[in-house]
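testing teh design pipeline on a random one, pls ignore if ur not involved
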């Protein structure tokens, strides 16, 4: 029987800031941008801020409304990456099979390593203690028979938690959970399921696989299996750099935000189709900007769950562009996606109509080796546009 461990650092960016700045401890810390930021998004926040409803990927402006007394800081991504490297080094000491799925979490295949510890609890406590001793940060750990159960378990008693679910406990443990605990079921989808009298995972199990497949397309089978705690995905160690991207250099430096937005949309379309062709999802979205004086910056945002839709990638990339654009002409713009995984939240429960449309667009745009169908945001704006919203 497989033994899979999921290690998830607790409120990583905010915890690093609280560790290094004692005056922030016990206070609602929100990392992602200054309080005055109009288009910034929350990278992460402390548990003190989460009590007010603040969460990752939320607009800074909304976070200010929810938590007006919060402490807003841009963050130091170089420092976070350095800490992450130290943690990854420790994790690799525990297992030769490690799959990093973001800067602050990873799966470890511990199958066959059980004899090195007195118990699974000893195993989990050992890695937690080792991480804390090295970087003075807490991690929550979940141990189960597969990746789905291990990840759910790591979130079960946050922060600084350790949850172990034995194979024979899986179905009973899952049964009373709200159905949105399954990857891919968000608030809107939960409302749809509620209309079918599906509110818990036990409720979901009552529906046959045929019904779920008919209503949800090819992802119906995945939901059917996950509701029963069945997940056959292996922990896949990175054998190559898991990232991809596209950039372009302008013939003349650009100052018009509409032109930059249009170019970014076209780059996103190229990267998005590459992701979907490889059945990959991205957890981290990055943009690259090079100005006329050759100053180059890169800005990234890691999401709570991976995505691979053009709309999702563009939404994050555009926010990063607007937040970080200086009052200088741009020479180069690029989009990159990283922390790639073969499983994404959106993949399990998407609108079948949108899924079919995306598949059709991908097929046509690859069949002729050139774009055949484009979204409005990819088109050049008229020189004297009427007042109104930009294309989406």
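output:
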């Amino acid at each position: 029987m497989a033994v899979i461990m999921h290690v998830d650092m607790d409120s990583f960016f905010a915890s690093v800031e609280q560790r290094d700045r004692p005056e922030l401890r016990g206070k609602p810390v929100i990392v992602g941008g200054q309080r005055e930021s109009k288009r910034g998004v929350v990278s992460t926040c402390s548990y003190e801020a989460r009590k007010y409803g603040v969460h990752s990927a939320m607009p800074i402006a909304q976070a200010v409304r929810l938590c007006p007394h919060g402490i807003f800081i841009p963050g130091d991504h170089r420092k976070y990456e350095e800490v992450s490297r130290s943690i990854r080094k420790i994790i690799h000491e525990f297992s030769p099979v490690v799959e990093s799925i973001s800067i602050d979490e990873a799966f470890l295949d511990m199958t066959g390593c059980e004899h090195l510890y007195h118990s699974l609890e000893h195993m989990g406590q050992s890695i937690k203690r080792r991480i804390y001793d090295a970087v003075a940060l807490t991690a929550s750990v979940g141990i189960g028979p597969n990746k789905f159960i291990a990840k759910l378990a790591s979130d079960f008693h946050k922060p600084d938690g350790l949850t172990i679910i034995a194979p024979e406990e899986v179905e009973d443990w899952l049964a009373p959970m709200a159905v949105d605990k399954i990857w891919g079921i968000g608030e809107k989808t939960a409302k749809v399921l509620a209309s079918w009298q599906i509110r818990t995972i036990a409720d979901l199990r009552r529906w046959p696989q045929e019904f779920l497949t008919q209503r949800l397309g090819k992802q119906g089978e995945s939901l059917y299996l996950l509701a029963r705690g069945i997940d056959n995905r292996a922990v896949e160690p990175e054998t190559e750099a898991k990232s991809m991207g596209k950039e372009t250099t302008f013939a003349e430096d650009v100052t018009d935000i509409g032109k930059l937005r249009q170019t970014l949309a076209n780059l996103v379309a190229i990267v998005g189709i590459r992701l979907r062709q490889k059945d990959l999802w991205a957890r981290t979205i990055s943009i690259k900007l090079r100005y006329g004086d050759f100053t180059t910056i890169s800005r990234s945002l890691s999401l709570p769950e991976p995505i691979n839709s053009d709309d999702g990638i563009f939404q994050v990339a555009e926010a990063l562009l607007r937040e970080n654009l200086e009052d200088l002409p741009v020479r180069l713009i690029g989009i990159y996606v990283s922390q790639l995984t073969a499983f994404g939240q959106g993949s399990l429960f998407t609108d079948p109509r949108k899924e079919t449309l995306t598949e059709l667009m991908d097929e046509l745009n690859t069949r002729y080796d050139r774009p055949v169908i484009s979204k409005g945001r990819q088109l050049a704006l008229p020189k004297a546009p009427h007042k109104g919203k930009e294309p989406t």
